[in-house]
Each structure stands twice: as structure tokens, then as C-alpha cells.
User: Fold these one by one.
Assistant:
Number 1:
Amino acid sequence: MCTRLLLCGHAYYIQSNSLNKEDAHEAINSSSPLSIGQTLSSPDTGNLVLIDDVSRTTIWESFENLGNTMLPQSTLMYDLSHGKKRELTSWKSYSDPSLGNFSLEITPQFDESYLSCQAKSSTKTQGRDTDIFYRMTNVKTPDLHQFASFLDADMCYQGCLGNCSCTAFAYISGIGCLVWNGKLVDTVQFMSNGETISIRLASSELAGSHRTKIIVATTACLSIFAILVFTAFMFWRYRAKQKEPTHVGINTLQNAWKNDFEPQDISGVNFFEMHTIRTATDNFSSSNKLGQGGFGPVYKGKLLDGKEIAAKRLSSSSDQGTGEFLNEIRLISKLQHRNLVRLLGYCIEGEEKLLIYEFMVNKSLDIFLFDSTLKLEIDWAKRFEIIQGIARGLLYLHRDSRLRVIHRDLKVSNILLDEKMNPKISDFGLARMFQGTQYQDNTRRVVGTLGYMSPEYAWAGLFSEKSDIYSLGVLMLEIISGKKISRFSFGDGSKGLLAYAWESWFETGGADLLDQDLTDSCNIYEVARCVQIGLLCVQHEASDRPNTLQVLSMITSTTELPTPKQPIFAAQTLNDVFTSESESKHIFSVNDLTQSVIQGR
């Protein structure tokens, strides 16, 4: 007599006869009868276990001998030392459990340079045989990078060293730790102004090995290519100048530059002579330097009439060329709003290009927001006014100005503060204008600041009003918490600002996200409402985000707010970047992007 047991899609039969371990395996897999002397049991996990009644040892279990079904606690494996593996096999048909045409298994595809990496990266064996990193300077960072949560360059180095999947890392000031876990795609070395990247090598590879020779040869080829491109460009410029009439001198060429900026073309903007700006800034003295902008340093100056100015000096090697320079002048000259920085004029002399702005006494918002002492000067009431001012300035750009403008680089350091701490949006070098009914555009050159870029812009180059709204949402959460999006970590370091803001709103309504030093000055209702609005602005899908008019209405009214979805980045963990490839969760990917550059500012 036998009993039929159906488990995990297989039928098993139990019968009173003697059976050894080998026969048990064959009997179970072929649905044959089992025999006396053994007990067949099924725990809550679904693992079918055959136990010897005398010794109480396990003879056979279904988790070690998978069929066509995998339960939550069963696993695939490959035992390299004993050559054993665990695999799933398909049935021939729904009613025929014999071996089918498909199987799923883990294969031992590894090489000696990797299980070697693991040994050398362990804390017990670090020394002269440890993997090393070859530093390349002036490099355009490769595509397909991942953003890690390490707070300094040494932690970034140690994190990459301890993960054998990590092929390179770069620690960029103002951005953080970028790592690569595969091939380095679309890497170019420039003559200057690139980033520094550290490429993983075995210690023996710098001693004349084949791979070292390849790397050296590749680097040399890239350098030669860059030199050839630079030489060709200089030759082209020389030939272009040669075609000009011979009587054209330097003064005439400078006049030609100025003719591109006639007052009738740019009304309300003055042309400043270079000697005027040099005098005003004490020849660009370091003591007058206010900071480093995206395309060059900014200096404080004082004109002869006593008026204070801020001069942004664009270096000749800056990424912002004549096109971006013209764009910023013509764009800002047409924008007049109390929450936008005012452009007073410009200056051009040879290769020198400068933009002259009104001087903001209190500099930028980040100086106050992230300073342990200065942050107390902007209590919650002032921060709420700043949020409203930024939203009004953005509404003017998107809806109320003569041009529809997408800023593309809205961040806390681009919000300047006047003597009354009123916010003014600045730095329009990356801004784009829309024509007519156009509401969206795309670019193959993704330029902006990591953390503030919306998913559709970072991954596919699509930008619109909704991509600025995403940046505004990040800004709001930074202003509320007093924490940087790129530096924030909570608890075990795996939660970023978006994740923490989501949990705060979901669990307590969001009021506890406010900087704890400001709790005495806050309006709990306003704080919680602003946290919810910020989360609505950083929704993963652009269609789920409110437009600018709706955002301002939400901030300034008491109407009921929609319920936000959990931001997709909030569901990821920063430390997952350094887990194995089979378990990793990428928090940032540009897999859908080709020939693009993400430049931190």
C-alpha cells in the first residue's frame, strides 16, 4: 500500500520497503515508491525531507535536488570545490514530469584574475600584492557610472578596492564618489579640464605586463589624438584669420566682437570696457573672489560711481563657449522679475568674456543653509518666504515671461540672496527657450548637477517644465531639512534625503524633517505641507508632478493636496552599489543614453 503526496508540482509515493540513499534520490525523482525505515516530512518551508528513522540523519531533501519549481527559501548553487550544482529542470509537458528541453543553473564562469582579486582585497593579505589603481587625469568620465554614498576620496578608494566588480572610481568635488562595475565606455582624455579617474589594475600589471602595455598604448593614442584635434583646430583658426583682409588689426577684430552685441540687439544691457572691470575688481584679486561658478570664478567689484557688481569671468578653456555666452546675455536681458538676478552688462576683450550682475550682499543660499551658525539667521518663516520666492521666479520663467524658459540647473547654490534675504534665481548658462506651444525638448549632451536632475533628463536627455519642477522639489527638501542632497545619509548610511523625506511624511506627516534647530520657530502645518509638495515634485514620472502654477498654488493656499507616490530613488539604497552584480540595485544608470556627457557643476 502506498500514499500519494503532491508537493512543488511533483507527485511522490511512500511505501513500506527498504531503501538506501541512492535509491531514495532515484525514487523521488522518478515518482517511485519509498520504503520502510525512513520518514518523509514537509516543513513549513516546503522542503520535502527524507529522514532515517534510526540515525535521524537526512538522507534526501527536495531543496538539494530541485525539480521544475523554486520556493522562496530554495536556492541555486554551484560548489566549485566538489563540482556539485543545484539546477532547475523543466518538465516535458504539463502532465509529463520527465526531463524537458530547458534548465536554469549557475555556471562557473570566472577567471583567475577575479577569486585572486578577492584574496588580495581581504584585510588579512593587504600589502604589496594588493590591487592598485592607475590614475588618469583630464579624462571625460566613462558612461554607465553609479553614484556611491562614500563621504570622502579615501572611503571611495577603499570601497572600490574591497569590491572585485569595481573596475574604476572617481571622487569629484561637489558631486561625490562615482564607480564603474564593468567596461569603461566612451572614455576620452583631454589636454586639460577633465576629471581624474582611478582604474583598477593588479599590482603586477604595472611591471611591464601585456595589459599594462595596452593601457599605456591606449593612453598614448588618446593623447596623440587630442593633440591632433587641437592642432587641427588651431590650424583652422589660423587659416580663417588668413582669409580676413590684411588691414584688419587687433582693434578692428575687437570692434567686430562688439558689433555682435549692439544695444538695439540687447536692450538694457551695458557694454563694459575691460580696464573698467579690472579696476573695479582690483585686477581680479583673490580677496574679491566670491566663489566658483559653473563656467568660471565670480568676483566682487566696485565701479567708480560706488555701485557694487559681481563679475563672472569665463575662462578661455571653459565649457561655455560663445554660443552659451550669447544665450545667457540675450536670455537674461529679456527676463525682469524680482526673484531673478539682474544682468547689468557684459565685457569682451579678445578671448576674455565676462558677465556683470547686480551684487547680492548675502551671496548664495547654500552659504546660510549648510552652516551650523548662519543657518539660524533663516528661521522657518524666512525659509518659507524663500520657497515661495523661488516658486514665483520659476513661474515667471515657465509661464509669465515673453519667453518660455527651462533653467536646467536649478540648485541651492544658484539661489542668491539680496540684503533683505529675498531669493533670486541665477546662472542661466544652461537655460533653454521654448517656442510657441513647444513644451518638451531633448539633448544628447546632458549637463547639470547630480541629485537635482530628473530621471527623464538624466537617463534620456528629455527636459521640460517638469524637469525644473523635480529640481525645485529637491531644493524644497534641502531648505526644510538643512541637509545637502549629495551629502545626506541617515541611520546606517543607506537612506538618502528623498528616502528620509518619504519616510518622515509617510510615518509622521513630515514635520520632523525640519532642521531640529528651528523647531521653536516653525509652523508645523506649513512644514508638513511643504514636505508633501516637495515629494509631489520629485515623482519619478513627469506626468505625476504638478506644473509650476499648481506648485505655487499649493504653497500659498490651504487646498487639499494629492497623495504622492514613493519616489523611486527612495526605494533604493546607496550602499547597494558595492554589492555583487547579481544582487545590486543601481541607483543611477545611463544605460538608455548614448554619446552623452553628465557634467557635475
Number 2:
Amino acid sequence: MKNKSDGRRRNKSAHNEAAAGNKNGRRRRNVSVPGDCPSPKVHPQKGYNSLFRLNAMQKSGRNGATADDGDRLSNLPNDLLLNILERVDTLDAIRTCILSRQMLKLPTMLSRFYLSVSSIPGHHQKPPRVFTQREGLATNCAVAHVTDNILRTRSPKITITKLKIRFVLVKLDSLTIAKSVAHAMATQKVDAAEFEIVTEKRYNLCSSADLLRFANQFNDLFGACPHAFAGLTRLWLENMRFGKLDIPNILSTCKLLEYLRLTDCDSGIHSVLQVEHTQLVELEIDHGKFQRVELICLPKLQRLTYNNWFSYEDPMYFGFLPQLSKLSLIKTAIRLDKSLELSQLLANVPSVGDLHLDFRSEKIWVLPECPKLLTPMLSNLQHVNLDNLPEGCDLAWTMFILEAAPSLNELCITVWDHRCTMMTNKEFRKKYGYCEKADVKWKPYALDFKHKNLAKLTIYGFQTDDNFMRDITCVVEHAINITEISLYDRKVCGHCGDLDPVIKNMICPSRYPETDEERKQITEGLGLASRAVVHFRS
């Protein structure tokens, strides 16, 4: 403990020295400035801290600099500075520019803007909580003020290549943001604009009345600034219970929309959502109480994700979706949930090339089917990801996809009892119909069928038991041109270490092969002609 405390004091002292100018002249390591290259994914707060430290150190005259060198960061060319500033949250970029008189003009020259309330401490942390009034007013007020100030003062000659704003649905601030964006769209060139609208409460804390209230607040904003929404290319809404015609009205107004995400949104319990749009490329639906989602006509839709539907019947109807290529279905199923037949569900979308099925460590909710019925729907399928299969279940049923998808090139299987997300209380599971583990029955329709295109098999959660060995052997026997088998140990998330000790004791120790001898025995047990085809990944 003493060493850790001393280390923290030394780090704090060093930080204070740098911020104060550190006049004693000790040398520091060189600090490189990123050049004009494609923007990487940078955490906004980390990006800001890096810029702040960089500016502080440049001002302090470190790295062999003299007093005549001045502020090196501010003396960089504007195009390079803008390239750096556009990689971080716009609020952080503005704070950085305030540190230098020469950089004060740069915020009005930005072409990319990202303004967000996500910097509120704890907003993305668990357990869910409510925004306090102070947090909501302070953060939204800052986002609204900066949005209005920058968009109204910047040069209209500079195209806005991307404008992304995440804000809380608070009346006055939301109205300011929407009106500012509408004015920018009317007076400047905006290539892409995005709203992420969150509510004062998380869904877990919302009553039905809250959901209705949030939807009414959104409708008021939408009605007051239709031109702002008409110019959006991306929209994400959370925690709203709309009227029957509200979502169709949103879609008809947002004519440029390419991406739509609805999280815990619906039009009432057991409602039916019908979706038609000429430009939509990607649709994500998280939860909600829809009985059925009907995708009537979406000629440009390419990617679709449906996470945890509410219906006990087929959750979706696919109409005219000629370009749908990536489909992701995620479901924590209970005993009453219907097992889906892919031959019926995908009857109108044979264009799917990438299929992701996530079972959340619970019931397997797809049925193995005859290849003659299923092959017309899976004829273009090239990548399949079967995620979070429950541990201990026979994996042989996964072969039905291999039988029915002649173009399949890559198969990835993840076996994981993810205790962080599973319901572990036995009484709770029994009361709400959670299933005990049960194998899915499958028998090959052609014992000697050969698959010529599968090249790669990846398994996460591999253990040295007969279940995995049988499955891999079965794949190898039928996939005659397979060139790579990658085997990983169980996945571990950041919260797994915080599990209750009682739950931890329920987890069987890993039996992933660690030694060369163990791995050699497994490879030989598979009967492969070449050992190089099997890779044990860390």
C-alpha cells in the first residue's frame, strides 16, 4: 500500500509540475504529434487529456526547447491542428483551443463535430441510475450553447462533413440544438448529420407513463423542428412509447435517413411496426414490446439487427429487401419462445451473406432443417457466427447450416455460460420459464455430404472434452478444403471478476490445453493430415 500511495503522489506531483511550467528545466521524452492520416477511434476524454498534456508540455519549454520556441502546438499548420482536433469530442477540442490565443479561431473552421453528454460520470455505468437535475441542465446546456454558437458563427464556405450530437431530451436545450442544426442545414452544406437522443431515466427505471411522456416530448421537438430531422442521415432514439402512426411519420419526414436505431422503443405492448423507407441502409431494434416488425419495402437496407424481441411468434416479416446482406438476431429465450425456422423466416431474403445468431447462453431458438428446404435461403451465405451457445450442450446441430449453405467460407462458434448476463437464481429461472440445458437433436440428411468452400473454423471456449472433439472431427470430415482451425479459451469480460463468490464456484475450471504435449495430443486426435491447420490462440 505504501508503494502505491507513493507512486500516486509522485505521478500527481509530476503532473502538477508539467501544468505549472516545471521551471527547473529537467528533460522529458519526445512527444510526437500525429500526422495527416486516417482518423483512428479515439476516446473523447483520453483524446482531450492527450491534447491538454501536449499543449502544457509544449508551453513549458520541455524536450530541449528554449523560451524563444514558444507554443509549438499552436505553431503547427492549421490543417494539421484541425486534423487533430476533429478526432476528439468538440467540447474537448474547444477547451484545448482556449489554452492558446492562436488557436481560438480554429473551432469555427472545424468540418467534423461530435457533441455529447456521454462525458457525464457514471452515465454508461451499471447499475442504471437517473440523471440529476443539475447534471441534465449543466451538460445539455453546454452542448446546446456550443452547438448554437459554433453553427451560427462558423464559415459557411467550409462543408460540414459530419455532425453528431448526443443530447438529453430536455425541452429548452433540445429545442436550441434542433433549431441550430436546422439553421445550419438551411445555410450551409452538411454531408452527414446524426442525433442520439437519450432520456432523463434509464429504461430499467421507467414506468409506462415515463415512456409515454418521453415520446410526447420527442413529438413536440419533432413537430417544432421538422427541417432538422428531415436532414438527418442517422438517428438513435431510446425509451419511448409512441402512438401507432408516430414512427411511420418519423420515417416519412426523415427522407435522408440511412441509419435508424430504436432502443426500448415501441408503439405499445404487442404493437406491430411497419417499416418503409427508400434510403435506409441499416436498422437496429433493441428490445421494445413489438409483437411483430414488418419490413415492407426497404430497397437499400443492407444490415439488420434485432435484439431480444418480445413476441412468442415469428418476430419479423421480410418484404422487399433486395440488398440485405448482414443479419444479426440476438435473443435470451425462455421455454415459451418459439424456435425459429430459417427456411420460413428468410424466405424472401436469399441475399444474406453474413448471419449472426446470439443465444445469450440460454435456449437454442433455431431448428435444424432439411437442406432441401433451407438451401435456397442460404445459398449466398459466406460467414456464420453462432454466439454464446450454452456450455455442455452437444454442438452437432450446428452442422445443419454447413449442409444447407454451400458457399459458406467461415464458421465461428462461441461457447460461453456468461454469468454476468445470465439469470442464475434457480427460483427466478423456474418462475419465469428459463430452460435447463437441453440438446438440440440433429441427424445428417446425407451421411457422405462434402462441403468444398469452408476454409476457416473458429471456436471460442474450446475445452478438452468429447463434445468439442466430436464437433471438430465432424466438420473436418465433411469440409474437405478447410485450411485453418483456430481454438480459443473461454472469453472473459471486464465484469467477470466482480461476480459473487457463490456464482464463481459454479463455474467449472477451464480445461483449455496449455502445454505443447496437450495440444499435440488434441491435434493427433483429430486425425488431420497436417498439424499446421490447427492453431491454439491466446
Number 3:
Amino acid sequence: MDIKKRIEELRKTIEYHNDKYYNQDDPEISDYEYDQLSLELRKLEQEYPEFAAPDSPTQKVGGTVKRELRKVQHDVPVISLQDVFSKEEVYSFVYKMIQELGDPTFVVERKVDGLSVVLRYKDGVLVEGITRGDGITGESVYENLLEIKSVPKTIPTKLPYLEVRGEVYMSNEAFERANKKQEETGGKVYQTARNLAAGTLRQLDPAVVRERELDIYVFNLEISQGKEFKSHSESLNWLSMQGFPVSPGFMVCKTADEVWECITKIGESRWELPFGIDGAVVKVDSLEDRKKLGITSKVPRWAVAYKYPPEQKETIVEDIIVQVGRTGRLTPLAILKPVKIAGTTVSKATLHNQDYIDSKDIRIGDTVIIQKAGDIIPEVLRSIPEKRPATAQKYVMPDKCPICGAPTLREEDGVEIRCTGTNCIAQAMRGIIYFASKDAMNIEGLGPSSVEALMSEGYIKDVSDIYLLKNYREELIDKGIVGKEKSVDNLIRAVEKSKENDIDRLITGLGIRNVGKQTARVLASNFADMEALQNVTYEQLIALPDFGDIMVRDILDFFSREENKALIERLKEAGVNMKSKVSDTKKDDRFAGKTFVLTGTLPSMTRDEATRIIQMYGGKVSGSVSKKTSYVLAGEEAGSKLTKAQDLGITILSEEEFKKMLE
């Protein structure tokens, strides 16, 4: 293995996932998978110090600062904890502390899964609240913290200055309520309470914070002018007396056995808690001892965070059924004998495709091992052949759609099997849900439950029927299908508003295979209207940035179908905008023939705004750097795209340089 290359790959991968987790609150992998990447990188850097780098993700805190919120310098660096994953590592830490300190005491706490914040009080009054950010600079979320009931706005002891650190989180109940509302309004459904809590706290509208019922636990005292403490446990007890909700159920220990016993107890009860935790923290209790030990550039030497492995259970595959997606893709779903895992009862798990089933040799009747990936999504890890009954049946994907009966077809050189039917209700329902979603036409109030109800009552058969709902206003109110009068009127207003969208949203909503938001924007910036798109040629499309043969053929196939031509005509008759606003507002062609790639956070504009400007001047925006790239517009925390551009000798632009090109 090329060690240097592997280290560089790990750094880029971890930086990418840091951005998704800390800055976008939208992680793509589980905490466990992330921890394994970090662990591998840390070990390689220790074994091969010649490849060490000061900007490695192992040497800094993951988060950066969002541009929209005011930056605030931290008084005390807000750093992460060293992660450990085994009993041996916990004992090693405890023995090391005993060796260095003599007779230390330890505190073991639950590691609440939320967003770390620092609270500042002057003369007993809350005056500021700051996120972790990059550990040196955070972002002010003071106005949002005022909306959290459990955050004390004043405390009885009026110290000149007090600073505490806590974790803002969302309870399981509040998470379920918020997600239910998101579903009803067609908004994004969050995968974890942590993501929703983090996204909520960084909202620019404090009313959203009030509505979503966030909570806080304070787990550390950072500064207390005018009052001295000898131990961490003493400071937590004092903070509790001041009205702070402190680390729930923290325990004081002396020996390694006691520490491990506490960790085990927390692990056994974690799924019964009303909030999520992602580990247990072991800290040296004495504040004087902490000063002696000090900190490294990234972690304190006096604490570690133990990460629990994903819980795994045995259960039985009672059946395998098939779901049909909006593009006609058939996805097998295991119906499991219900089993409680990671705090909830699991009775279903996706099996992805026929190849997945075959490679793991999963049969109906099998005993299987399941876990929740990241404690969220149920997955079947493997079957246990030695427990297989004689009646176990191999599963083969159907050659007919289970919904409409049309033949199914396996993609050439692919693993996906699709329904070939043009009138499949399952495809239609998911297609309509997607059309109304936030990334497409953004019709608030037309979520999955509303679409299902309107389809079952016969009001919607395809997306064009959405624009006829206003004709049935009184009926809808009387029947209460999507709610009472206010809900119906809000939905009709949202439908009417969506008619004004630029055609990139319409293109996205049409659900053309392999065409997402970015591709739709490129099409909208290169073609004046839907008519031009319907008459587009292979040569015109293949010349566009990042357009490959498969995508081009999918687009041509979509617009060649008579049923799609008729659908677009019905949408046009309903008053849906068919013209490209980007093309209409094009100023000149100074960027004609130029391809831009955007990376990092720009100081004064979003990527969407920058994309629109580039398109208005005839340029194209691509999602990846290649030899065809003309410029890379780079902001703060630019990642691997910037590195690749530098390697290829592509011109790098700052926002200021980009603006000069517009003058």
C-alpha cells in the first residue's frame, strides 16, 4: 500500500465529511464509520511521522464558521476529545492518569449527541452564546439560545463573568413532532435528532428554534471570575444550584474497574433515555490535575470519549417484498420478525438489489444479523446459514411489477431492475411527491401524506393535476383531505406560487433519470425555454460540461416520449412557467465557452447566487474539476477541488477577483 497516498485520501475524505457534519448538518456516513476513518488516519500518522501535516484533520476541530452568522472569538479554545473504542483503551487511559497523577478521581458522563455551545454571563445575565466553529472562532447564536427554555437567562450568583460549555440537543419526542410536521409540509425529513438540532440552532429565524423545542445540558465550567473550584464534580453541583441542567447522571469513580462499570451501565440504558447519546466521557475530576496535564493542539490529555459499537441483534426474515420508486426502480425489502434495537422496534430493512441478496445469501426464513447504521437505518449484515431451516427459500426479483403488472427489465451492465410500465401508480405517487419537494417545485403543504390522500380520492393522477386543485377548493375543505380551510388555502397559494419558478426547478421536478438540481441548472442556462429542450439534439447536449452519453440519452428519451410531451403541454396550459429566466436576464457573453467550478464558502454570496451570475454572462458551472475547467472560484475552507485545480494549473479566483471580471 502507498502509505502517503492513503494518508492523503483519508485526509480529503475526512475533511469532506467534516463539512457535511459540522457546516451542512447533513452527514452522509454514520458516526461509527467516521470514527473508523479517523482512527486509521491517526494510526498511520503516528506510525509514519514523516507524513505529518499541521493542517491534517487530526490536528484541528472539524467545524468552520457559517458566513450568515456573526463571528465571535472564543476565550477558551473549544476542542474535541480523544476517541477510544475498546475496554483496553479505557483501562490504558486510566492507568496512564494514575501513573502521572498518583491517586486521581474520575468523572464519567453521558456524551449527549447535539451541538456544542458556549454560554457567557456577566453579573448573572446571559449576554452571549457561541457555537464551537473551528474551536478558535465560533458563530453567535445568542438570539436563538434565548428561545430555549432550559437555558437560564439569569442566575442567582452574580459573578462578574461566567462561561460554561454545554450541548444543545433535541429530545426524541420533539424530534418526532418536528419531523412529522416536515412530512406534512413537504419539507426535508431529518435522519437524526442531532442534525435537526444543529440545523435549527443555526437558523436565522429564532421563531423556528422556539417551535422545535430544543434543550441543553451543561457539561463544563470554563471561566468563573470571583469563584474558585477544586474539582469538576464540585463545579457541576454548583452549576446545578444556579439553575443549569447539568450532565445527567454523572458518576465519580476511583479505579479502572469502576470507570468501566459506569461506561457499561450507560451503554445498557442508552436506548431508554429520552435523548440520544453517542458515547461516554471519562474526565479527570481535579481541576489542578487538569492544568498539570494540559492539552495537545486538538484534544485535552485529561479526558477521553468512549464510542459504543453499533448494537447488533439476531432476527428472522419472514418475507421479502418489493417497493417501486418514482423512476420505476424495484427495491427489495426484508420483512423481519420485530426486534428491539437501538431503542426502537425494527420490522423492515432494505436489501438494495438482487446482487446484494445473492452476495450475502439471504433467504426467506433465514436467521440474520441486523444493526442500525449510525443507530438510524436498519441494515442486514449477514445471514447465519447454520440456523437456516429446510424450508428457507431463495429470493428472485419479479419479472413483473408488483403494482401495475408491467414487465420488469434489468439495466444493461447494472444492478437495478425497473418497471417498464408507463401508468404505474407507485411510480406516479413517488414522482408527484418528488415534483412538489423542496429541491424541485417547492410546493409547501404537498408532502407524502397529502399526495397519497389526494391520489386515493382521485384528485391527482399526475403532476399537472396539482394545478387544478384550486377548482375543488370547497370539496377539499368539506372532505378535510389535506386539512381545514386554512391548510387548503395555503396549499393552493403554494401551488400558484410554484408556477413562477424558473424552469430549472421544473426540469428537476419532471424526474428525468440522472438529471438532478445541478444538471437542471445547466440546461436552464443553455436553453431559452422548454420548447428548445424538447427539440434538443445529442450534439448540443454532449457538448455541455459533465454531460456524458448515458445522461444525454436519458434526456433525449424523456423528451421523445409522447406521454411526456402531453404532460408538458398540460403544465403549460395550467400556467406553469416554461421560459428560462437565466436566459432572459443574460447580460452578455463574456463567460461564453468558460466553465467554472465553485468550492468553499464565499464572503458575500452563496454558491447559488454565484452560479446564477456566471450563467447570466454566458458561462457554465460544473460540479467537478477537470482539464476542461476554465476557473475555480474558491472561498474559505476550499477542499479537494482547490487542490486538484492547483495540480492541473487551473486559474484560481477569489470572490474579489471574480467581481472585478464583472466590472
Number 4:
Amino acid sequence: MYDIEHEAEDHSRTIVHIDIDCFYAQVEMIKDPRLYQIPLGIKQKNILVTSNYVARKYGVKKCMLIADALKVCPNLEIVKGEDLYDYRKMSYQVTSYLQKYSVLVERLGLDENYVDVTQLVDERLKHQNPNIDVRGNLFNNIAETCVCGCVERLKMGSVIAQEIREGVLHELKLTTCAGISYNKLLAKLACSLHKPNEQTVVFPNHAVALMLSLSNVSEIPGVGSATDEILEKINIRTIEDLQKCHFETLIQALNGDRAKWLVDLSYGRDNSVVKTSGRPQSIGLEDSCKVLNVETEVREKFHQLLMRLIILVSEDGRIPTTIKVTIRKFDSVSKVSHRETKQCNIGPNLFSTDKITRMISLNEQSEKKLLSIVMNLFKKLVNTSRSYHITLLGLSFTKFKERFDGKNSIASYLMNDLAVQSVTSIERKNSISQPQTSLQTVCSTDGSENEIEPLPKKSRLGSLVSRCARLGDSDYSSPSKLRVADLRLNSRDSDHGDTGYLDTVASSREIECPPNADKDVFKELPSDVQQELWEDWKRNRSHEDPHDKPFKKAKTNTLLNYFLKN
């Protein structure tokens, strides 16, 4: 039995649903401003797919036949909309703009987008006064009683939604509607409550009331005609019918999962996440300003943009490798503003990743270095020794690389050969079976730790563990550079039993060095490893042909060495 009353709800998210008003019509009106003032319809074949709001006042509706539309509005101007090129182009420009606020942007067709602004809301609430008013409309203007903090989050979400809509209008000349709530279902329904060019917020305590305001089950997003027909056969037509229906009856008509999904929706519950519709090629921010002509002000503005940009990049999960600076300069001679950009590569080591949250961040030193790079790019665009007039600053990351997790990569596979190549330079015709190592932590010279994921199997020689306290004197940027003396090895095949990690590499009895080994390296190895190599050499020698050619030196230009360079 599905427990309807005690189903847990999550109010922690802030979801904004953006819907572009009469999208096709707006695109055509932007192309031809004359159409703003007259009734306009967009046709595909013999159907009117949309119209502007001037035409809707005459009774023109979506999906009307052309003949019927002309009857109610004889002066309707009709534009062909079969070619979707301009609509698609504008649609992706809108999505790209939304990605300035969050990388979690999900496209629904050409004119709708979900935006998860949860992280941006949380960040702003840390630094801004939470006692703000709702921007736009509020569904059921009744005092909210939820104590989880969702009220403040949704209020801040309404502020961000208004900023988004104003930005889309300013940059792309498109009016939009928005719905703001804690899940996708309520945000989408709220978006349609006040049109055009308005927004509505729905608090958690009003979710059921919003669902009951729907006239039919078919108005629930995701409920198609097939499901609607099935529900009608069991006398379910309204949301109230769906809520009162016995769950077993729903299971008999539908499968169990779909029945549970429908019941959840009838109470306004929706735990589906905003699915990113492809990762953006660039993540950036721009900020218009009246006038900037002092370097300290420019630096401060860039610092603000950088901090906001890091929030967006942390959600994306990739590591930026290129940064681009954009400026808009006002030419006092021609009285015209023009944009210029400059970019350069940046080192991935500037960014650090939290081990638990996997979020990308900048430490204070990296932040200063990156800001210095930004200012150098700015100075290449602007001669700061002369007067200048800046009206816009922009900052963006334009190239990315995936984080190296180490488990399923080629480098990880090739790391199986690491112990032999990094610990000993013994030259063998018949090589030792390659041990698999578990390299835990390599300490870099700047004190940071570069984690390498442990491999799934342990080696015969055991795990290689760096002595961090002794690595500060030299450069150990890759595991292949580790000195044998700085490693502790544990062998499961030791003649002395399970002694754990050996504290010294000295041995009480001297073992002869194989002729094909480097004596200095051999002396640094633990005695049990020396013994194993000596015995192995003797076994191989017993099977050798005395007329064999001398052993060849192992090639260093290997695929593994290529990967270990990075």
C-alpha cells in the first residue's frame, strides 16, 4: 500500500521555469517591427501554430485552421513558419543566456526551459538580506508556515527569475513568463498562471491548492491522451477524483510505478531533477556599467565577475583551461561603442576540487593569480596609460577538460606498470611480472596533495606510499619521479612473515646483485625484494641459451611514459 500522507518532500531546490511569450511570433516581430502593432499569425501548412497577443484579442487561438482564424480576424497577417532556422537560432541564444545563471538548464522544445538556481540562491542568501519581498505574483497570497527555509529561498528565486527575464528582454528583445517553486511540476504550472510577461511563485503549502485548481487530469504535465482515456474509463476526470481513487484501482488500470507517479503529481510532488541539455561550450558573465575609467574599479568589477563565474563552473564539474575577457569601449570620436575580446590558456592546477562535494574552487593564491591574468588581458585590450571609457566587462571560460578520476582511464590502466618503472631500472630479457601498485598520495612541493585513485588489485610488492615529509626538497610532479629511498614497500612474500611496512631498506645479510641490474638501485631495495629478484634472475638464467645476445636496454619512449608526462 502506497503511503500517500507520509511521503517525504524535498523543499531544498529552487526551480525556475521560463516560457517565451508567443515565441515564433516574437521572432518574426523582431525581424519586422511593423508586426508589433498588428494581429499576426504564424502558420505551418494549414494550421496557425501561434499568434501575437494583438491577434488573440480578436479570438485567434493556437492550432486554429487558417480559414477559421481569418473568420474571427479578417485583417490577420500570416507569416510562414515552416523554416525553423531563425527560431532554433533564437532558442539556443535564450538557453545560452540562461546558462549564465546555472549550468543546470533543461530545454523543453524551442520556447521553454527549466533552470535550477539552487546553488546561486544559497550563495546569495549568505551575503544578502533574506528579508526580501516576492517579485511578481504569489499563488494564494496566504501566510506561509514552512520552517525549512524554503520561503526565503523561493523569494530569492523570484528575484533571480526577474533578473533573468529582464536580461532576456534587454539582450534578445524577448518577453517571457516564469514560474518559481521547489520542483519542476509546480514551476511549470505556475508559469502559465499570469501571461504575458509576468511571473508567479508557488510555496510548498500551496502545492495541493494549485493542483486542485486544474480543471482536468489531462492538464497535468506529462499526462497524455492515452493515460487520460484510461483514467476516464475508471471515472477519474479531475485531480480530486485522482486523489480519492483507491491505489489498488490505479494499479489495476496502470502499472505500479505509473500509478505512484500519478498520485504524487496530484499532490504536487515531483522529485525529478533538471537534466542539463548538453554542456555549454563556454560559461561566462557580462556586466554593463555606466562608465569605468579607473583601473582599481575595473579590477574590482572583474573580481566580482570571477567569484560569480566560479559558482557556475563548480556546478558544471569540468576544469576550465581557457579564460576570455570581453570589454565594450566607447569611442569619444566616433561616438560608437564596440566590443573586443582577448583570451589565453590557464593551468588546470589553479583549481582545487573538494574531496566530498566534488565542487571546484579557488584558493586565495590561485584567485590572485587568475585575477592578475585577467587584468593582463584587459591591459592588452586597453591602454591604461591613456583615458578610456568602458561600458561593459565580461569574463568567461571557453574551453574545459574533464576531471581525472583515475578509474576508467588509459592512464590508470597503464599505471599497472608503475612499480617496475619507478622503483627499479633492472634490465631484463624476460621481464618480471608487472606488479600492480596502490599509490595513495603524492605530496607536491607547494604542500597540496594530488590524489591518485587506488587500483583495484594489490601487487606482490604491496602498496607504494610516499613519505610526504621528505618530498619537499625535490620536484615530484609525477609518480615516475619518486626515489626508491623515499618509498616504503610491503611484501606479502617476505621470508620474515607479515612485518607491515619496512622502516629501513637495509638488510642484515648481503644478497648478490644480478649482473643485469643497477647496483646502486639494487642496494636501495628491501632485502626480500632483492632476494626475489636474485632468485628470479637465476631461474631465467638456467633456461637461457649461452649463445643468446646480450640483454637490450628497455625503451623509455613508451606509451606509459607519454601519459606519465602529464
